[in-house]
């Protein structure tokens, strides 16, 4: 599992058609699934969150185009979700609560 922490942001469109600014936590590649993934959270979820509360994470697969931008797609299988959940657990263990 190759995790690449990124200090970047992305904008997604929610179910109501609103633009939502998100912070990228990390990206990872999967040879098994032949895809790249991004794990992120909604920045507005951080306001009002205390140190003990969990922030809801989101994930998507993506294809990077020649401009360096990515097109997001939904995670398609339970196996992919398990892979991402393992990566998040590994990331959390490495941070030991010190990651922002």
Write down the secondary-structure element order: EEEEEEH
Could you report the average pLDDT, rounded to the nearest whole number?
82
Shape: globular
Number of H/I helices:
1
Cα-atom radius of gyration: 14 Å
Q: Report, as a whole number of angstroms, the end-to-end distance.
A: 21 Å
Ranges where pLDDT stays below 50 over 5 or more residues in a row are: none
Structural class: alpha+beta
Largest sheet: 6 strands, antiparallel
State the share of residues found in helices, binned by percent: 10-25%
Q: Determine the strand fraction and express it as a percent band.
A: 35-45%
Q: How many E-type strands?
A: 6
Comma- or semicolon-separated keywords:
100 residues, alpha+beta, 6-stranded antiparallel sheet, 6 strands, 18% helix
Task: List strands and helices in order, with pairings.
Elements: E1 2-5, E2 9-13, E3 19-30, E4 35-42, E5 57-64, E6 70-73, H1 78-95
Antiparallel strand pairs: 1-3, 2-3, 3-4, 4-5, 5-6
Structural features, described:
By secondary structure, the chain is of the alpha+beta class. The chain has one helix and six strands, in the order ββββββα. The chain has one helix at 78-95; strands at residues 2-5, 9-13, 19-30, 35-42, 57-64, 70-73. Strands 1, 2, 3, 4, 5 and 6 form a six-stranded antiparallel β-sheet that branches. The longest helix has 18 residues, at 78-95. The chain is globular and about 30 Å long. It starts with a strand and ends in a 5-residue tail after the last helix. The mean pLDDT is 82.
